Amino acid sequence: MRVTRDIKYDCKKRNSMSSANQSIPVLVAGALGRMGSEVIKAINSSKDYQLIGAIDNQKEKEGQDIGSLLGLAPLDVFLSSDFEGSLCAASQNVPNDGSSNSAVLVDFTHPKVAYKHTRTSIAYGVHPVIGTTGITTDQLDDLSKFAEKASLGSAIIPNFSVGMVLLQQAAANAARFYEFAELTEMHHNNKADAPSGTCIKTAELIEEQRSVFNKSLVNEEESIEGSRGGSRPSGLRLHSVRLPGLVAHQQVMFGSNGETYELAHNTIDRSAYMPGVLLVIKKIRTFNKLIYGLEKIL
C-alpha cells in the first residue's frame, strides 16, 4: 500500500507512457552534474531503461533537451528545475491494470537535499536510488521506516563501485585481526561533505567486527587541530583530502607489531560506477524496503 503523501502538489495529469513499454522509466536528479550526466548516457545506451525526466537547478537551461545539453542526440526529455513536479508526473506511470512499471529516481544532487529528495520520492511512489552522500544515521533510520511503511523498494548507495564493495569486505575481514586502523579518503574539491559516505560505510563495516580500535599509548597533542583526523566513538580515525585532479580514492591501513596491511581503491573515471547504478535501478523494484549499501544488492 502506498503511503499517503505528506507533501502538497497538484498531481492530476497522467503521463502518456504505455504499460506495454516494459523498459524501466528513470528520472535523473542532478542531470547536468558529473555523475548525473554519466547516468543519462548509460541509460541512453541500453534498451532496458527509458529516461523520462531530467532535473537540475540550472534554471537558465530549463526547457532545453537534455540530450542536446549533454552532446547527445535529442532525447525528447526536457530539463526541469521542478523536482516535485517531475516526481508527480513519474508517479502516473503505474498502470491501472495492476501491472507495475513504477519509475525510479536516480539522485546525485547535494547532501543538504538528499534526505528531503529521498522522502519525497518515496511519498510519490517513485523508487529512489540515492548516490548523494551526507544522510545522517537518524535520517537513515527515519527513511528506512518510511520506505517499509510504504512497502517501496528504495536504495541509498554511498558507492556504486563493485571494486569498493570488495575493498570494504576485505577491510571488515581484516578488522578481526588488527586493533589499530585508520582510513583516508580523497576526492575532488567540489565534493561538499567530509568524510565521504563511502568512508563512513567502510568504517561501519569494520566496526561490526571489533568495537574498539587505536587504544592510546601516549597523551597525544595536536599543534594544529584536526591533524589526526576525525575520531569515531570506536577510536577509528578518518582523514579527508580534497584536491582538484582527484576523482574518488580510499585507503584503509591496518597496523600491528612489525607490519602494516593496506587496502586501496582508486576510481579514475566515473564510468566505473555505471554498471552498479544500472544494476540497482533494475533490482530496486523487487524490494519492499530501504537498502543501504551496494553489497546488499549484489
SSE topology:
Blueprint: E1 24-29, H1 34-44, E2 49-55, H2 66-69, E3 79-80, H3 83-90, E4 104-107, H4 111-123, E5 127-130, H5 137-150, E6 154-156, H6 162-174, E7 180-187, H7 197-207, E8 230-231, E9 237-242, E10 248-256, E11 259-267, H8 274-283, E12 290-292
Parallel strand pairs: 1-2, 1-4, 2-3, 4-5, 5-6, 6-12, 7-9
Antiparallel strand pairs: 7-10, 8-9, 10-11
Helix pairs in contact: 4-5, 6-7
Q: How does this structure look, described?
A:
The structure is a single chain. The protein is α/β, with parallel strands linked by helices and 298 residues long. It has 2 domains: 159 residues, NAD(P)-binding Rossmann-like Domain (Rossmann fold), CATH 3.40.50.720; 106 residues, Dihydrodipicolinate Reductase, domain 2, CATH 3.30.360. Helix content is 28%, strand content 21%. It contains 8 helices and 12 strands. Strands 3-2-1-4-5-6-12 form a 7-stranded parallel sheet, with helices on both faces. Helix 4 links the parallel strand 4 and strand 5. The longest helix is centred in the middle third of the chain and has 14 residues. It is elongated, with a radius of gyration of 21 Å. The N terminus is likely disordered.
